[in-house]
Amino acid sequence: MAFISSRQTWKEGRIKSRSIGICRLGNDMPHSVVHFEILGRDYESLRQYYQDLFGWNLRQPEPKIQYATLDAEEQGHGIGGGIGVVREDLKPLLTIYIEVDDIHAALAKAEELGGETVLPVTQIPGWVTFAHFKDPEGNVVGLVASEAPSAE
Q1: Which residues pair with 145 in a beta bridge?
Q2: In Å, how far from its chain's centre is CA 124?
Q3: How many CB atoms lie within 10 A of CB 38?
Q4: Are 36 and 20 in contact (CB under 8 A)?
Q5: DSSP code of 59?
Q6: How far apart are the C-alpha atoms of 10 and 71, rounded to whole Å?
Q7: Residue 146 burial (CB count, 10 A)
Q8: pLDDT value at 15 more than 60
Q9: CA 13 to chain centre
Q10: 133: how many CB neighbours lie within 10 A of its CB?
Q11: Which helix (H) or strand (E) is 75 found in, with range?
């Protein structure tokens, strides 16, 4: 799995992450959905499919990683997301990411309520801290920390 982010900046009460198009709307809704990922086996075909279907302007911020991003701010509304390659041991999947202040506490609560950790808390320095859990029905959901980790 690939998840690419950039430094977050405050603008008019909203956090914007230009690289992955995260658009966090202040206090409108606690634990908002802030990002999506669509992952499949054939990156180029999947990317082209969604670009043609919806007219999305998908960018590949890191040429070495098969992951394209959709910037919500550039699109004018909605949330940003990404199209990428799924790990070989997984089926193609769609994941939504929910923003939380304390990712460890949120993951523990998901387990306490009957969920299961799929991907433990993972940090990409300077970019993003995220995790995946499976709900009691088997849906995989992503968590993303409100604050980007330091680059160190």
Answers
A1: 100
A2: 13
A3: 19
A4: no
A5: B
A6: 16
A7: 15
A8: no
A9: 21
A10: 22
A11: helix 72-75
Instruction: Tell me how far apart the alpha carbons of residues 70 and 116 are, in angstroms, rounded to a whole number.
Output: 29
C-alpha span between 71 and 17 (Å, rounded):
8
Tokens of 79: 């949330």
CA pseudo-torsion sign 77, 146, 124, 1: negative
Radius of gyration of the chain (CA): 15
From the number of C-beta atoms within 10 Å of its C-beta (0-12, 13-18, 19+), residue 136 rates as exposed
| CB 50, CB 93: distance < 8 Å | no
How far apart (Å, rounded) are the C-alpha atoms in residues 66 and 95?
17
Whether the per-residue pLDDT at 34 is higher than 80: the answer is yes
pLDDT at 86: 92
Residue with token string 């808390």: 121
63: amino acid identity, one letter: P
Instruction: State the pTM of this model.
Output: 0.75
Distance CA 123, CA 114 (A): 24
In sequence order, what DSSP letters do the residues of 83-109 get, joined into one string? EEEPPTTS--EEEEEEEES-HHHHHHH
3-state secondary structure of 6: coil
pLDDT band at 46 (very low <50, low <70, confident <90, very high): very high
Strand, coil or helix: 150: coil
> What is the three-class DSSP state of 44?
helix
